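Could someone model adenosine-5'-triphosphate with this protein?
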Amino acid sequence: MGQLNLKNIHKNYGIYDVIKGIDLEVNEGEFVVFVGPSGCGKSTLLRMIAGLEDITSGDITIDDARVNNLPPVRRGISMVFQSYALYPHMTVYENIAFPLRVQKMAEAEVRERVEAAAGILQLGERLQQKPGMLSGGQRQRVAIGRAIVRKPKIFLFDEPLSNLDAALRGEMRIELTRLHHDLKATMIYVTHDQIEAMTMADRIVVLNAGDIAQVGAPLELYHKPQNLFVARFIGNPPMNFLPVTCTGVSEAGVTVDYKGQTLTVPVEPKADLEGQTLTLGVRPEHTRLGGGDISIKITPTVIERLGINTIAYATFGEDVTFCSLTPGSAPVRVDEEVTIGVRAADCHLFTEDGNALERRVELTDFDFETVMVPEAT
Ligand SMILES: Nc1ncnc2c1ncn2[C@@H]1O[C@H](COP(=O)(O)OP(=O)(O)OP(=O)(O)O)[C@@H](O)[C@H]1O
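Reply:
Sure, complex below.
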């Protein structure tokens, strides 16, 4: 129970085409995250699944039943919103029990379900308090409790952690991951935060202007982004991009020239690349002080020391910004030129249309494993 199928979903607002034909299958028990920049359509897509927004065309099925025309309450879904949407005059107990009261469920069963949810969410001590006495994180847990008691086929989360501070967001991420492990329920989660997507998802759906840019396991997107959009979006600090010229293709991969230095990147070649301008992608964490297969000289304009790492930012040419993530103790200083080395095997290559040449990296089973669930404390 809890399988979702989206078939050629479109949404227009007048002349604006905001969802442009999305096909997606979400498996039972999967944690799928929709991620993308503001305005890419992720909330609209989630609201269409919930039934809070009509679809312009296409089909939504849940467990093989077409739900296009079913109202939200009959779709077997529960949604958790960014604004917790709690009733301030009701106790935590009554807030969690609310959807069951609407269903006119017997008191004994209400109590059983509310207490079970409160146990999972560590709200047992708070049941008689009003929301005003709770912290932001506790209020969000009440909202999640209200979703749990309905025993939905699918949970939908719309940026549920956005109102929390960074430390609490980190804690709630772990709690939600644990909750998913305990309930084994299908969960669809919308966020613009790629760290939430990477840490919680079994699969990430990256959206770009109403289209799917790529769907994959978090580490699949990290190691094999299919286009510049995903390469830029997944990873923090973001990937660096340098213009290079293709000088040849061979069994070993695609050879490029970067300022007189030659680099053969192990990617699947395509026809007619020779002579073309390509984009070399280098993640900041794959740069090293000193030499590599090629060397890049940078003069940092900003240095950020984070303890474990030091981040150096430099600009060169007209508009190329380069970022290097070095060990915390790295001897890098503002206005002092350093040489950064890059290994060919760590590089990505993109053609002029923004698509990636497929990297010859083997993804291991580990890269597809569902997220590790921390031990309960
Ligand atoms: N009622 C509406 N009428 C017209 N356009 C709308 C309406 N609702 C949303 N849109 C447009 O649809 C696009 C997608 O909006 P949506 O809220 O789904 O994006 P989002 O990815 O969730 O962004 P955010 O992270 O900012 O919430 C946006 O360009 C938005 O302006």
